[in-house]
Amino acid sequence: MTVKYMELINEVKMPAIGIGTYKTGSDEETAHAVKFAIEAGYRHIDAAAFYGNEIGVGKGIKESGVKREDIFLVTKVWNDDHGYDKTMEAFNKSLERLQVEYLDLYLIHWPTKLNSETWRAFEELYESGKVRAIGVCNFKEGHLEEIKESAKIMPMVNQMEVHPFNTRKKLREYCKVNNIQMVAWSPISRGRVLTNELLIKLSEKYSKTITQVVLKWHIQNGVVPIPKSSNEGRIKENFEVFDFEIAKEDMELIASLNEDKSVTAGPDNTTFWDFK
Ligand SMILES: NC(=O)c1ccc[n+]([C@@H]2O[C@H](COP(=O)([O-])OP(=O)(O)OC[C@H]3O[C@@H](n4cnc5c(N)ncnc54)[C@H](OP(=O)(O)O)[C@@H]3O)[C@@H](O)[C@H]2O)c1
User: Fold this and answer.
1) CA of 156 to the centre of ligand 1 (A)
2) Residue 164's CATH number
3) Number of the ligand 1 atom closest to the C-alpha atom of 163
4) What is the pLDDT of residues 24-51, one digit of tens each?
């Protein structure tokens, strides 16, 4: 199966599905999962300094033998490294651990009080060509409006917890109007989708697994999912979503599962959130 792409506002092409790497284990285990994902067809890899596995991610990419320019590599600056100087330093350390010369996308991992200082460093990294696109994670409309006040360049991506139980309809609309590509973390709500009755029925209807139905629902919504798996069978399964189409009425049924519910510790249940 060949990967499909979404185009960012600066015309950079982002593969429409990525592999998540949170809790992929040791460097060896991470490298194995990343290499296997690339062999299965993934070209978009979501890492973060906070995950402590950038060395493994870099190793997996190298071992895959696929050219650097054919991979869309993402990593994130952690909260402790906010501010102009610290961000620059964190960026260089990430490049070193990943063993690459540039990033495809650099993200602010969580909003903090230092968003605008951090963003100034991001703009400079972008302008110098060290990163092909810049963005944020876990930013609600208020955070994005605030950054707008001082930004020369607006975030091109917002990575957020999105799944059928928290569809983020309003934020998705805001991002669409502001040319910000949404990326869904915990796209299968860390497995909670697997027991939902409606999703079980749709899985039977489309002869696809529940996970495949949910991942395709994201993509048809214009959102890029980044499911994590360290299991070869599930890595493959999650990528096989480009050979079917969900009907409009079923897209709406899935959206009706929304409960505005975060199934993780954030972003709605965290002190980082309401930082003002
Ligand atoms: N920006 C942020 O603040 C932020 C926050 C959280 C996550 N993320 C990113 O988003 C990625 C994905 O989110 P997530 O890891 O929280 O949750 P997720 O992708 O929704 O779920 C991952 C869990 O589901 C299991 N799984 C994967 N595919 C499956 C399948 N086909 N059938 C059954 N179970 C399956 C995985 O186990 P196995 O490994 O055993 O398959 C793992 O336990 C992360 O890895 C990370 O890269 C970003």
Assistant:
1) 23
2) 3.20.20.100
3) 20
4) 999 999 999 999 999 999 999 999 999 9
